[in-house]
Each structure stands twice: as C-alpha cells, then as structure tokens.
Amino acid sequence: MKRWWKWGIPVLIALSATVALPHLLARSPTADREPASVRVIRRDFSATVLATGAVRPQIGAEVKVGARITGKVVSLHANVGDRVERGQVIAELERDDLLAALDRARAEVAVAEARLVDAEARARLAELEFDRQSELLEAQVAAQREHDQAAKEREVARAAVLLARRQLESQSAAVREAEVRLSYATIRAPIAGVVGSISTQEGETVAAGFSAPTFVTIIDLDRLQVDAFVDEVDIGKVEPGQSGTFTVDAFPERDFEGRVTAIYPKAVVQDNVVNYDVVLSIATPYRGLLRPEMTASVTLLLGARAGALAIPAQAVKRVEGRTVVYLPRDGGGFDARAIRVGWKDGEWLEVTDGLAEGERILLDPPATDSSSRRPS
Fold first, then answer.
1. Residues 109 and 151 in one domain
2. In which band, very low, low, confident or very high, does the pLDDT at 233 lie, cut at 50, 70 and 90?
3. Does residue 316 contact residue 324 with C-beta atoms inside 8 Å?
4. Sequence-separated (6 or more) residues with CB below 8 Å from residue 195
5. Contact 313/350 with Cβ under 8 angstroms?
6. Which residues contact 30 (CB under 8 A, 6 or more apart)?
7. Which domain covers residue 278, as residue numbers?
8. pTM
C-alpha cells in the first residue's frame, strides 16, 4: 500500500498535466492574440536635411586692421572686447618724419606759386612788347627781324607760364600725397564692431611690406551667418531660399531660424568625406547670444506637404523589388499589396499610390508570405 502511494501519486499528476496542457494553451492570451495593425491616416510631412556647421561672420563683418607705413606705435587705443565705432582712432604711429615731409611739400608749393607769378608777369610783358613791335612794323619804323624776335619771346613766355602751372600742380599733388601718408599714421576702425584680438603693443615698430601688419581684428557681431556643411548625397535637394533652423551647444533648448542664401560651388573635403558649404542668414534676433565659431546643429527644411496619406515605416517590406504592405483578412491571414511611397518624415512614410485612407495594414510585416497572396 505504501509502495502504491509512493509511485502512484506522481503518475496521476503527470497524466493530469498531459490532458490539461492543450486546453490551457488554447485558452492562453498568446494563442488568441491577433497581429497588430494600424489604419492609414493623413498627416503633414516635412522633408529635412541634417547638417553640422558653425557660426561665422558675414563677408566684410570681420576686418584685420593694419598699418600701411613703417613706424613705431606710439599709442594704442583698443583692448580686446572693446566696442568701436566706424572711424574711431584705435592706434597712432610716430609722425615726425611725415610732418617734415608735409612741410617740405607745402614749401615747394609756395615756391611753385611764386614761379608762376613771375612767369605770368614775364608773359604779360612779352605780350606788350609784341603789340608794340606790331604797331612799329605797320608804321614801317621797326624792322621785321625785331617783330619776329618779339613774337618768339611772347611764345617762350607763354610756355614758361604753362610750365610753372604744371610745376604748381605737381607740388600740390605732392602735398596731398604727404597728407595721405600722414593720415596713415592714424589707424581708424573701418567698421563698427568689437575688438576680437590685438597683435601689436605700444612701442613696437611695424614694418609695412606686401601685406599690412595687423594691429587688431574687429568683428561686427550683428552680422553673423551659419555655414552648414551638407553631405554630397543631400546637396542636390538644397536650394537658395529654403528655410532652416539650428541650435548651438551654448543654448541647446533655443531654436534659431534662418534661410539659405548661398551654396558654395567648391566642395570641402575632410577625411575623404565630401561636403558643401551652405550659407544661412539668421532671422531670429541673436545679439548677445551667438558668437563666431560656435558649433551649430542645422536642420534644413526642404519642403512640406499637408494632409498626405501616411503609414509607419516599419509596416513596409521590400518583396521582389516592390514596396509591399500587408492587409489582414476578416477570416484570418493577410493579403500583400504593392504601394508607392514618397517622402519620409521620421518614422512615417508618405503613400502616393496603393492605399486609401482608413484601410488597415499589419504593423509588423510577416517573415514569410506563406499565408498571403502575391502583391497586387
């Protein structure tokens, strides 16, 4: 009896489990669960291109100010971060030799003016002598030779006046040149902006050569742009006039709006990757926020379509070179249907042909098409 209890009870439990297990599985939630499906809906689409760029000064908004003459810096009126206005004095060079050259040029002008006065007086005298000789020749008192000599002296006097005038003009030009060179000793800001860097100190001697030595760099922080580097795969979709947004690491939660103004024709190749520089003007007020060389994460908006038919991208499958979705049947199973898709916006695909609004499709395509019809 004890032996029966020892072996019989486990056998009964095993037999009961064998009989009950198929019924439990038939009633489990997994067995009754239908494949997940979604309906075709309408939504707005926007096609975008993502790129990384940097905030840069516009052309002409960053100027390196230097000297056009050689000389010692006697005073420097600028510090990094200072705001300067257009025409403001930012540095001065020694000018003693320039002042002396200007005084010498002005003295030469005075001499040329005196020479002109003398030449004009001689010309008037020669004119009077010619007229007198002409009257005497008519009265047959003077000889022809004397009249010809007076005519010659008149022409020489006229030429002397012309020469004196040209000399005066030359000396006047020398004065203007000396004044211009003197003005080079005063370095003024060509644009309004902020001093970004200083490369010269008071007491240093700068030598002007083929390129002017830089005193300071001035940046107009009110004229900034974004240079976005777009991959060659996407550059064909980008056109001037398209809008875009960007963020910078300093203000990750703030979106700045912009518009494409130019696309550089020459590629920028880095690590064998070809990109093209796309320039965006900045429409959002940014004074006090953006600075040159800030890294920008750019999103270019290529276009928008309102109310387009849309399905989740995960519901689409490629079968024999065709784009296919699967529609569940009422009695079980599913049918495959070929469709055409357009734009992609995140996890959504635009349907251009093959589906109607409200139709239901399987969210996850089946691994095989054993229970479906071939795509129609």
1. yes
2. confident
3. yes
4. 78, 79, 80, 81, 82, 84, 90, 216, 217, 218
5. no
6. none
7. 49-59+220-304
8. 0.63
